[in-house]
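Batch manifest, entry 17 of 40.
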Amino acid sequence: MRLMYKSCGIIAALFLSLTLTAYLPPFQASITAEHTNKQSTVETPSAAETKSSEQKTVPVSWDKPSGGSYPVITKNEPIWIDVSIKDQKVYIKEDDRTLYTMVASTGLDASPDTTTPTGTYYIQAERGKWFYAPKYKEGAKYWVSWKNHGEFLFHSVPMDKNQHILSADAKKLGEKDSHGCIHLTVPDAKWVYEHIPYDTKVVIH
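Output type: structure tokens
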């Protein structure tokens, strides 16, 4: 009789063990799947974001040509100037061909008084090697007028009254910074002053 009870106890224990074993794997699988899903939702930086973070903006040297050696412009060559506000670039062009690219700063666009006008203009007679505007407490070298006879100009990066570069503005070449004029590196402004003739077309967009 004891043997029979003992045998029944062993059989019951085996049955319980088999039952737990049968249900355990799905439970474990569920935990594993949940853990895997949590791991898969962890955000990782995209390749583009990683590349972007690795890229460093190289500042423009305001005392050097921004596009390398300047082109040789012959007399009566049909050149024109293409100014891209979006790109913050000045393109010296002959027909559709770009001869030279300059890094620039156009108007801040914070108000009508700091906006670079868009449209088609022509280089005017007014130009000079230096000016200073007490109103803004800044001046510039090598200016060339393209609108309102001395109001809107191509000129160098801003300087103080002693002709010292205002580095805070000069460092912003390549982004909006001016009161409406078009800032250039000192050599680029000098090249425009010396080589771009009167009545040259200027398209600003």
